[in-house]
Design a protein that fits this description.
Blueprint: H1 2-29, H2 44-53, H3 60-84, H4 104-139, H5 144-158, H6 161-175, H7 192-229, H8 232-239, H9 244-282, H10 287-296, H11 300-328
Helix pairs in contact: 1-11, 4-5, 4-7, 4-9, 5-7, 6-7, 6-9, 7-9, 9-10, 9-11, 10-11
């Protein structure tokens, strides 16, 4: 498995390089000019100097090569310098945001904890709720619980976050007044009371994101369990006298989790995409809101960096899903 992991990581390098090229070219072809927000009173020659200072006067291949060098070489050097106190990245040009004139990765690191608070918690909650629902719905097929779960999950899977987010704000904030409608990113947890406040402001954005996660994974879990419950090995295990809980929760569940693992692993980047809309609704000052504001300001270095980081997540969690196959199913070999 170690050899397979190393081989997949090596093969992911050209994949990521190709993805970065596609992202760069798409942003180059997109309409918009970073100088569009400059006041009209600024003389044209000053605007031209500003464009050259941003590197817009250079050919596209050179700008792409500079971004690659800064992102893959200079930024790791900065990380090493911050960790070990060295000065490898001293006086080297980093990826600079056109909007804030500050290093892109510093802004991303500042915004990331807010996104992780919401996204990580919502995904954990969604998976923990979805798996039991899918297992029990399959075991009690066509029962009242199964039919109710099917209805709720289909609604949750069909309703977009921008609708469900506004709906729960109207219910829990406007009508009932139980929860705050705006996420306070400046809030710090220092004691129990501040922790309770943090939980209250996390409830609604976590609920919106977890709803779609629960709906998707529970449907896959139910379908996978139904495929395995009627297999011959299940009847054999029951004929040997094994208890029903052992048959379902050990033999059937382990085989059923193999396709579900793919959905869970690949769902991590997807929920980051859902967080883009959710953060706008609840005013969470995270990566999603950063991406939206950067697009509106034509901040190409920031947009390119954030979208490429999402691409890295997709490639990495594909590898994680493949590795988990071998753990769940010993018959799978990576020779």
């Amino acid at each position: 498995m170690l050899t397979y992991t190393i081989r997949r990581l090596v093969l992911s390098i050209p994949t990521l390089l190709f993805i970065s090229l596609i992202i760069f070219l798409l942003l180059e072809l997109a309409p918009g000019d970073p100088m569009a927000q400059v006041p009209l009173t600024v003389p044209p020659e000053v605007k031209q100097q500003m464009r050259e200072a941003l590197g817009l006067g250079e050919p596209t291949p050179i700008r792409f090569g500079k971004w690659m060098w800064q992102f893959f070489v200079v930024e790791p050097m900065v990380l090493v310098d911050a960790t070990f106190g060295s000065d490898w990245a001293a006086e080297k040009q980093r990826v600079i945001s056109w909007q804030t004139r500050s290093p892109v990765m510093e802004i991303v690191i500042q915004r990331m904890p807010q996104t992780l608070w919401v996204v990580a918690m919502s995904y954990v909650v969604g998976v923990l709720i979805a798996l039991p629902i899918g297992i029990y719905s399959a075991y009690r097929q066509y029962s009242v619980f199964d039919q109710l779960g099917t209805f709720v999950t289909m609604v949750g899977y069909s309703v977009p976050p921008f609708f469900s987010g506004v709906l729960i704000i109207v219910i829990f904030s406007v009508q009932l007044g139980w929860l705050p409608s705006i996420y306070d990113t400046t809030h710090q947890v220092v004691d129990w009371d501040s922790f309770v406040i943090q939980l209250k402001q996390m409830v609604m954005p976590v609920m919106v994101l977890a709803l779609q996660t629960t709906a998707q994974i529970s449907r896959f879990m139910r379908a996978s369990m139904l495929d395995n419950l009627n297999q011959d090995y299940v009847w054999t295990a029951r004929a040997k006298g094994l208890s029903e809980s052992v048959v379902v929760m050990i033999h059937v569940l382990r085989n059923s989790m193999i396709p579900v693992i793919t959905v869970i692993a690949l769902g991590v980047p997807q929920i980051f995409g859902g967080a883009i809309i959710t953060e706008q609704i609840f005013k969470v000052n995270g990566l999603g809101q950063l991406l939206i504001t950067s697009i509106q300001a034509n901040d190409l270095p920031m947009v390119q960096t954030v979208t490429f980081m999402l691409a890295v997540l997709i490639v990495m969690f594909n590898i994680v899903a493949d590795l988990l196959y071998g753990i769940l199913d010993p018959r799978i070999r990576y020779d």
